[in-house]
């Protein structure tokens, strides 16, 4: 019963159900459609993004059906006829879904997920699909940017208390791990996903003893591994000296791992703390730091040669503080007409970059002999660049920017996840996904990876795809003109 009440089918916008009703009532519900999900602008002005969210999308699709309870609710609050409610009750997911795999680096204006199947079904899942992919891809990308500056230091995820509610903390933590974080303070995320859990203690422990020494001592008597938070009263005069005192007193009874600082000038303080620890005979004790950190503060602290070994990052990661939404969209690219033929559809805009690319497509990652990515190449579905000896790659708007690539490898980015409603993809282990992210980023030139003003990675259209887009624009324009003249 609980399972049925917790059905996710109503995790959709009301307008999706209303459109489903239109399609159903007018006999269009089962028309074949193709939708693609993509984002238009790179998040955080980043040179790359890390795709995440597929596992949760699969969890959602695997169990997608309307419970009795859902149907009762819809009966109560809508004027839907019983026949339509029966149609929803019998709903069985039958779409074919192709997607980038989690951890794969992805870019703007390329399909990340493609859904093909009965129009009404494709429509229903739009909201949940975007909800999941938008958030998790954003957090995995933010995490990768942070990891890129901490380099080989350990970085821990501390964001749960500041996340936008409980689900975001859990799935955001998983996305952060994919993007390169090493551990989390969220115990449930540890249990669910096998992410290493780690942590220190809070100011409240010290405050409850009204004294650094008493607080550290209490913690040390009850724990083997100890990292003491030293900034409750005065880091240099009280926190660190008392941490050293307890570490000496307890000797081998504890693993004195280090101290955490959480306020003040962390470059200045960390250098002083390092000196205190070294002089006291604890050169291996690590200095942990937290306090509103993000990739730019961390980079700055590194430039100031702050003596920080372990970074704790919460708010600015889990809330994607500097860009709270990825803005991925889900657009109809092809639809079956009344004659049973597929017609490719387009969304026009006065802004050239915003005009959608019609037709069912594949994204190919083009790699040169040195193993580095040359760019992504979007083709119509039937094209296969692997059959070509050389590839002409050009910017889809500024077409004079172009190059010809030889001796390349082309790898399809969209892989089969569901075939006509049946799952054909086994979800990888999380550590494999993390590895995918690492390998993916290793194939990217440094120029695309720097956090500030990176070069723009090429995402090009094949000649055929580009010509098709131009012809479709022309056709739609002529249609609009004809209607105006009526
Ligand atoms: N040396 C530094 N260079 C650049 N930024 C720093 C440096 N030291 C700390 N910061 C960052 O400065 C920001 C603000 O620190 P601020 O001094 O206001 O906090 P605080 O001392 O912790 O105050 P509070 O006690 O209220 O927490 C934090 O994001 C922190 O990470
Ligand atoms: O700064 P963030 O990147 O968000 O990292 C998480 C923060 O959460 C804790 O502070 P909080 O004031 O909530 O609790 P405390 O009393 O333990 O310091 C911790 O000390 C960090 O400062
Ligand atoms: O373990 C910690 O130090 C921790 C956990 C959550 C938030 N801030 C710090």
Provide an overview of this structure.
- The chain is built from 18 helices and 21 strands.
- The chain has two domains: 14-140 and 324-485, Alpha-Beta Barrel (nicotinate phosphoribosyltransferase); 146-319, Aldolase class I (TIM Barrel, Alpha-Beta Barrel).
- With 486 residues, the chain is α/β, with parallel strands linked by helices.
- α8 packs across α16 (430-442).
- The strands form five sheets. A seven-stranded antiparallel sheet has the order 13-12-1-5-3-19-20. A six-stranded parallel sheet has the order 7-6-11-10-9-8. The chain has a four-stranded mixed sheet with strand order 18-14-15-21.
- 40% of the residues lie in helices and 20% in strands.
- It binds adenosine-5'-triphosphate, 1-O-pyrophosphono-5-O-phosphono-alpha-D-ribofuranose and nicotinic acid.
- Pathway: Cofactor biosynthesis; NAD(+) biosynthesis; nicotinate D-ribonucleotide from nicotinate: step 1/1.
- One of its GO terms (cellular component) is cytosol.
Topology readout:
Layout: H1 2-5, H2 14-25, E1 32-38, E2 49-50, H3 54-62, H4 68-77, H5 82-89, E3 96-99, E4 105-106, E5 113-118, H6 119-124, H7 126-150, E6 154-157, H8 166-179, E7 183-184, H9 187-193, H10 203-209, H11 212-222, E8 225-229, H12 235-250, E9 255-261, H13 266-279, E10 286-289, H14 295-303, E11 310-313, H15 315-318, E12 329-336, E13 342-344, E14 361-367, E15 373-380, E16 390-394, E17 402-406, E18 409-412, E19 415-419, E20 422-423, H16 430-442, H17 446-449, E21 459-461, H18 463-485
Helix pairs in contact: 3-7, 4-5, 7-8, 7-14, 8-16, 10-11, 11-12, 12-13
């Amino acid at each position: 019963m609980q399972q049925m009440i917790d059905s996710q089918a109503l995790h959709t916008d009301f307008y999706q159900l209303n459109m489903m009703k239109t399609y159903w009532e007018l006999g269009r519900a089962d028309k074949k459609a193709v939708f693609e999900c993509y984002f238009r602008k790179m998040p955080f002005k980043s040179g790359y993004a890390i795709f995440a969210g597929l596992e949760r999308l699969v969890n959602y699709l695997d169990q997608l059906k309307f419970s009795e309870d859902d149907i009762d609710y819809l009966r109560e609050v809508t004027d839907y006829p019983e026949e339509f409610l029966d149609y929803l009750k019998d709903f069985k997911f039958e779409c074919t879904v192709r997607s980038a795999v989690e951890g794969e680096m992805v870019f703007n204006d390329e399909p990340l997920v493609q859904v093909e199947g009965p129009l009404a079904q494709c429509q229903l899942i739009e909201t949940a699909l975007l909800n999941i992919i938008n958030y998790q891809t954003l957090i995995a990308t933010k995490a990768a940017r942070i990891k890129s500056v901490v380099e080989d230091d350990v970085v821990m995820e501390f964001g749960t208390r500041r996340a936008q509610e409980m689900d975001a903390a859990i799935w955001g933590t998983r996305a952060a791990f994919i993007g390169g974080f090493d551990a989390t303070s969220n115990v449930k995320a540890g249990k669910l996903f096998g992410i290493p859990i780690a942590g220190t203690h809070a100011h409240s422990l010290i405050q409850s003893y009204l004294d650094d020494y008493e607080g550290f001592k209490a913690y040390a008597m009850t724990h083997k591994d100890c990292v003491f938070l030293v900034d409750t009263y005065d880091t240099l005069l009280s926190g660190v000296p008392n941490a050293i005192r307890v570490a000496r007193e307890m000797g081998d009874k504890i693993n004195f791992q280090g101290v955490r600082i959480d306020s003040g000038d962390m470059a200045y303080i960390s250098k002083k703390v390092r000196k205190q620890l070294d002089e006291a005979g604890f050169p291996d004790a690590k200095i942990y730091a937290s306090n509103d950190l993000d990739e730019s503060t961390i980079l700055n602290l590194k430039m100031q040669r702050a003596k920080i070994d372990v970074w704790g990052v919460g708010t600015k990661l889990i809330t994607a503080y500097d860009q709270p939404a990825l803005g991925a969209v889900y657009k109809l690219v092809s639809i079956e007409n009344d004659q049973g033929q597929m017609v490719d559809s387009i969304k026009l805009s006065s802004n050239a970059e915003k005009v959608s690319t019609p037709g069912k497509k594949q994204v190919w990652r083009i790699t040169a002999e040195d193993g580095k990515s040359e760019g992504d190449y979007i083709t119509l579905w039937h094209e296969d660049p692997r059959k070509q000896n050389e590839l002409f790659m050009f910017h889809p708007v500024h077409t004079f920017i172009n190059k010809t690539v030889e001796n390349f490898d082309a790898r399809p980015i969209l892989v089969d996840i569901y075939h006509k409603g049946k799952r054909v993809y086994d979800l990888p282990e999380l550590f494999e996904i993390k590895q995918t992210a690492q390998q993916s980023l290793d194939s990217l030139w440094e120029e695309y990876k720097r956090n500030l003003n990176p070069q723009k990675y090429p995402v090009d259209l094949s000649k055929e795809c580009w010509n098709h887009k131009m012809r479709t624009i022309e056709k739609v324009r002529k249609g609009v003109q004809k209607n105006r003249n009526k």
